[in-house]
Amino acid sequence: MTTTLQKVDPSQSWDMLIAGDYDISVMYWTNDILDPDQKTTFVLGHDTNNNYMTRYKNDKVKELVAAARVEMDPKKREQMYIDLQKMAKADVNWIDLYYSPYISVSRKNIEHFGQNPLGRFTLEETVKK
Description:
InterPro entries: SBP_5 (IPR039424)
Structural class: mainly alpha
Number of domains: 2
Mean pLDDT: 83
GO molecular function: peptide transmembrane transporter activity
Radius of gyration: 19 Å
Distance between the termini: 53 Å
Organism: Pseudomonas syringae pv. cilantro
Largest sheet: 2 strands, antiparallel
Number of strands: 2
Order of helices and strands: HHHHHEE
Protein name: Peptide ABC transporter periplasmic peptide-binding protein
C-alpha cells in the first residue's frame, strides 16, 4: 500500500471533512452522557452529519438504532446495542486506529487527581500534600 500524506490547513480541514474530500481522517470523540445512544445515533443513525462524516448507510442498522433508543427493557436494550456493534463492525463502517486515554499531569504534591471517561475531574479524593 502506498500512502501520500497531505498537510491541510486547519481552516480547510472541516470543509474537506464535510464534503467527504478525504480517504482517511483523524477525529476524536468523547461522550457527554453515559448512554450508548449518543454515539450510536451520531455514528450509525443516518442523521444530518452523514454519520460522523463517514457516509455509512445501512437501513437495518438505522432501524435498530431507532428501536434501541426507546427500548425500556434493560436486557433487550443491551442486546440491541451488542447487535448494532456486530452489524456495524461487519460492515467495517470505521476503524479505530488508536485510543488516547486521559492523561493528567500534576505537581508531585498532588495525589489522587484524575478524570472519568466523560472528562470530568474527580476531585473528591484529590489531596494537596
